[in-house]
Amino acid sequence: MTSPFQRRSIPDYVIASPLVALLYPLHQLLLRLRGNPRLPPPDAHPIRVVCISDTHTLEWPDVPEGDLLIHAGDLANDGSVCEIQAAVDWLRSLPHPHKVVIGGNHDSYFDARSRRDEDREEPLSNGSSFAAVSASTASIRSLDDLSTASRIDWGDIHYLQHSDVTLTFPPPTTSPSSTTPLIGSRARSLNIYGAPQIPAVVPFGPEHAFTYPPRHDAWSRTVPQETDILVTHTPPQSHLDLSPIYSIGCPNLLAESWRVRPLLHVFGHVHYAAGREPVFWDEAQRAWERLCASRRSRARYSRLASLFGFLRDIFEPSGWFDAARVVIYGTLGVVWSQIWGGENSGGGWMVNAACMYRDSGKLRNPPQVIVL
User: Fold this and answer.
1) Quick one: pLDDT at residue 177?
2) Whole-structure pTM value
3) Which residues form the Calcineurin-like phosphoesterase domain (predicted)?
4) Which residue of 158, 199, 330, 352 has the fewest CB atoms within a 10 Å radius of its CB?
């Protein structure tokens, strides 16, 4: 049986839902044609954000320069203090002025339920404080809540676990191409919130950290409204999570992203879906997400049973209406930005920054660089 974390073949997508399989490339083309979803403020300098994730003890040889480096989890494989500290030491050696890291499901030291025996300060037993942490609540408990002192030497790195940090980026004193002082540029601040929890879409073992039951809502009203950059390990549903149809992202995280609408949402976890995607928080996006959600149940069907997807697509008016919304509102967005010269505002980026290439054990997906 194919793992839900692996991309399915094109025939599988077409058989399950010909409508969304054919609409997907057009939707992606319209997104790209609309241009940058959010431009930097006119009186401030751009901030270059470098995004990586899922390095699994390995080191990318040439991380691009930038003002902010974000690692969205899975620093390690076995989650031991030794492996995590080695990855942190590598990140500390990089020259980026600001660095932010969250944990992933392989970083088990940061979740009391999943910590290796040799890394525990007290044994896991019925009488321990850790045993009282249930599977549905441990994912939303921080190290501070558990009164556990971290054994990781973070140096200048900001580690976020259901917490946030506000970083200030001073303006450059000169233009990169000259020695002329810049005039009118001001310092900028960005609020970054990080959370590591992931839905257990497969039967993860106890060594996997921060898991919660797929139907459990671990997200609603957890992200501060003022968040500019959201860093999670799991993707939201319908975005860079093997969508359409075979989506394994979290629908509650998607709803939380709609509420906050960050400039940038960085995640990883799904190696097969690495990349970036502009989001505009409009009717085209809502319609696309409805199409993906309505067909998510078909991922459980066999190929033979999925043949009924073809008939269901033909006789399902709501699907055709949403497909029309994706095309019409997406086209209007292209006309607004590329023909009328209008400026996109209020949009943002979603980035799956997984560096691990599929299940190869090698880092081949390059770091993603976003300019805010």
Assistant:
1) 56
2) 0.90
3) 48-272
4) 158
Question: Which two three-digit tokens encode residue 208?
Answer: 């996997």
Give the H/E segment covering residue 17.
none
Contact 7, 273 (CB under 8 A): yes
**Residue 53 φ/ψ, nearest 5 degrees:** -165, 165
Q: Are 288 and 30 in contact (CB under 8 A)?
A: no
- Cα–Cα distance for residue pair 262/42, rounded to 1 Å: 19
Q: Which two tokens stand for residue 54?
A: 């899922």
How far is residue 47's CA from residue 43's CA, in Å, rounded to a whole number?
13
- pLDDT tens digits, residue range 201-215? 888 888 899 999 988
| Phi, then psi, of 165 in degrees rounded to 5 | -145, 145
Residue-wise pLDDT for 5-47, tens only, equals 888 888 888 888 889 999 999 999 999 999 999 888 888 889 9
Q: Is the pLDDT of residue 52 over 60?
A: yes
CB atoms within 10 A of CB 7: 16
Sign of the torsion angle spanned by Cα atoms 113, 115, 118, 121: negative
**Quick one: pLDDT at residue 303?**
60
Residue with tokens 């249930």: 134
Contact 47, 372 (CB under 8 A): yes
CA dist., res. 237 & res. 306, Å (int): 21
pLDDT at residue 311, as a whole number: 73
Cα separations in angstroms, 368 against 232, 314, 354: 15, 38, 9
pLDDT band for position 126 (cuts 50, 70, 90): very low
Q: Coil, strand or helix: which one is 211?
A: strand
Closest CA to 93 of 69, 72, 77: 69
> Judging by beta carbons within 10 Å of its beta carbon (0-12, 13-18, 19+), is residue 14 exposed, middle or buried?
middle
Check: CB of residue 250 under 8 Å from CB of residue 237: yes
- Assign 263 to helix, strand or coil: coil
